[in-house]
Write a structure and sequence with these properties.
Elements lengths: L2 H9 L10 E4 L15 H6 L1 H6 L4 E4 L27 H13 L3 E7 L8 H6 L13 E3 L10 E2 L7 E3 L5 E4 L14 H17 L3 E5 L18 E2 H5 L5 H12 L7 E5 L5 H8 L8 E3 L26 H15 L6 E2 L9 H5 L7 H13 L4 E5 L22 H10 L4 H11 L35 H6 L4 H12 L2 H5 L1 E4 L6 E8 L2 E8 L5 E4 L9 E4 L4 E3 L2 E4 L4 E7 L1
Parallel strand pairs: 1-2, 1-13, 2-3, 3-8, 5-9, 8-10, 10-11, 12-13
Antiparallel strand pairs: 4-7, 6-7, 14-15, 15-16, 16-21, 17-20, 18-21, 19-20
The chain binds alpha-D-glucopyranose.
The site of alpha-D-glucopyranose (GLC) has 9 residues, from loops.
């Protein structure tokens, strides 16, 4: 190690999560063992060998705590009880222990912005203004003879206010009527939230995803939305009290676990905001999950139809700029979180790449190479590693995601036919990415003996069993990729994006004498990248199908990708 590195190393203690490779498990859809058609804790336990075999070292599990299940776990009834839907308290303990025994870290979801209206705190609060839990939530009176305190709408539809049954006040719910926002201005609420974290840290949890935390500082003047009516979230995101609230929480959990990893979900955060949230001086969160990674070609959308549920291709130029900015900005701090897909969005290779049978494998492999060998922390969403595609709804009425029916009606009005509308919805509604895990090519794909709770695809080849047998499968490719990602060069090496045309994506990683060159073709056309002649086929450590190298000219197949490493 040279002196410069030694100095750098002494200055900054490397945190465990900088080397994390995270596997996201959506427990409902992972593996069912009791036949109710919904995945469970025993299902995760059954598949631990599989999870470990991927090479990941951390799992993030979506909420399994007691919930009214109107928002699949994000509408919490108890922050510390395991939902019997997923198993018993003992099952929960067994899962934590089993993961620990395998040397893995565990991240839990922490929905801290709202609870279910069935949460005992809210049930108490409903008893009236004198109840000690009243201030755990946010209340306002009706105003100006209108049925609501102001014109805010909720993210999942309707007004952001609902009137209490036995009184005259309204409670705030920025997401959904049955999910009242909690009041972070109220110290006892903040203390309870910190206690929740301490409880789970005591049980062995290593980190938390702070769900929708950017809304916890609500403007109590309740200003009207300037558009006449509009999302309450617009006026209440990224409030100035968030640093105080989170740093207080962090101080109070410090004794329970110094090394706890906090990753905040901030869907609208650009690079600047991400920096603010992750700046150690501000003591808020370690990393941010933003949905701003995926800029789409807005000019290809039809202005007459709402944009949110309209599909458009990824804007590769803008995507590269976003990636470059995040890589450069967060380079020193181990890089950003890297992900293509999660439970709130459709599966990306299918959405932004090619789902045609001839390109499907290359697309999945290339997209993984492109993103995950950059600097940062990969989050692989269950099923991604076998190239699962989205599920397809026929009837908009069966899609729970908000805004679907409005979109359908608006699109119909301007003459879109049913198939066209569903084509869009099946690439934009978050539910299409929540299909059950395809373990094998059988009637219920090895997920359950019962009736699966969600739609699914039964496919030969795109299931774990078939891919285990095929050395060239996406699954085996992911394993090799993860192995590579674990090497010091890809963990710690410097990053430099190379100038290429928009449909190509190339970068270098360097560390001391080691160097890697990563080249990807994000298009359906073959293409060529000129690379230095010193790179030969002997340096290729990973590639997908159909590429070739001729004296410094790297021919990439449609959705081709090749990774070169020089280690001397
Ligand atoms: C987050 C979750 C999402 C949930 C929402 C409300 O965005 O990821 O699934 O619906 O918060 O809790």
């Amino acid at each position: 190690m040279n002196e410069k590195n030694l100095e750098g190393d002494m200055m900054r203690h490397r945190k465990w999560w900088e080397d994390a490779i995270i596997y996201q498990i959506y427990p409902r859809s992972f593996k069912d063992t009791d036949g109710d058609g919904i995945g469970d804790i025993n299902g995760i336990l059954e598949k631990l060998d599989y999870i470990e075999s991927l090479g990941v070292n951390t799992v993030w599990i979506n909420p399994m705590i007691l919930s009214n299940q109107e928002d699949n776990g994000y509408d919490v009834i108890s922050y510390t009880k395991v939902d019997p839907l997923f198993g018993s308290e003992a099952d929960g303990e067994r899962l934590i222990r089993a993961l620990k025994d395998r040397g893995m870290r565990i991240i839990f979801d922490f929905p801290l912005n709202h609870t279910s209206d069935q949460h005992p705190w809210f049930q108490e609060a409903l008893k009236g203004p004198e109840n000690p839990y009243r201030d755990y939530y946010i209340w306002a009176n009706g105003k100006d003879n209108r049925p609501y305190p102001n014109n805010w709408t909720a993210a999942f539809g309707g007004s952001a206010w609902s009137k209490e049954l036995n009184g005259d006040q309204y409670y705030l719910h920025l997401f959904k009527q049955s999910m009242p926002d909690v009041n972070w201005d109220h110290p006892p609420l903040r203390e309870e939230m910190a206690e929740v974290l301490k409880y789970w840290i005591g049980k062995g949890i290593d980190g938390f995803r702070l769900d929708a935390f950017i809304y916890i500082d609500v403007d109590k003047d309740f200003p009207e939305h300037p558009d006449g009516t509009g999302p309450g979230q617009d006026l209440n995101e990224n409030g100035e009290k968030i640093p105080d609230h989170l740093s207080e929480m962090n101080r109070s959990i410090k004794d329970a676990g110094e090394d706890v990893f906090l990753v905040g979900e901030a869907t609208s955060a650009d690079a600047e905001l991400t920096q603010w949230y992750t700046d150690p001086e501000n003591n808020m969160v370690d990393k941010i999950i933003t949905m701003q990674y995926f800029p789409e070609k807005e000019d290809e959308k039809d202005d007459a139809v709402p944009g949110g549920k309209q599909h458009a291709p990824l804007d590769l130029k803008a995507f590269k700029e976003v990636q470059k900015t995040f890589q450069e900005q967060e380079g020193e701090a181990g890089g950003p979180v890297l992900f293509w897909t999660n439970h709130d969005m459709p599966r990306s290779p299918h959405k932004y790449g090619s789902a045609s049978p001839e390109h499907r494998d290359n697309t999945a492999k290339m997209m993984a190479v492109l993103l995950y060998l950059q600097k940062g922390i990969p989050i692989i969403y269950n099923g991604e590693e076998i190239g699962m595609k989205n599920t397809a709804f026929d009837d908009p009425g069966n899609i729970p995601d908000a805004g679907v029916m409005d979109f359908y009606q608006e699109a119909e009005k301007v003459g879109w036919d049913h198939n066209k509308i569903m084509g869009h919805l099946n690439l934009t509604a978050r539910d299409v990415g929540r299909g059950i895990m395809q373990w094998e090519d059988s009637e219920k794909v090895g997920f359950t003996d019962g009736r699966p709770w969600a739609l699914y695809n039964r496919e030969t080849k795109y299931n774990v069993e078939d891919q285990e047998k095929d050395e060239n499968s996406i699954l085996h490719f992911y394993r090799k990729l993860i192995e590579l990602k674990k090497t010091q060069l890809f963990q710690e090496g410097a990053y430099e994006m190379l100038e290429t045309k928009d449909t190509l994506y190339a970068y270098r990683r360097t560390l001391d004498d080691k160097e890697a060159l990563v080249c990807c073709n994000f298009s359906e056309e073959e293409d060529t990248i000129e690379i230095a002649e010193e790179w030969t086929s002997d340096h290729i450590v990973l590639e997908n199908d159909g590429n070739s190298l001729e004296g410094g000219r790297l021919h990439l197949s449609p959705y081709g990708a090749a990774v070169f490493v020089k280690d001397e």
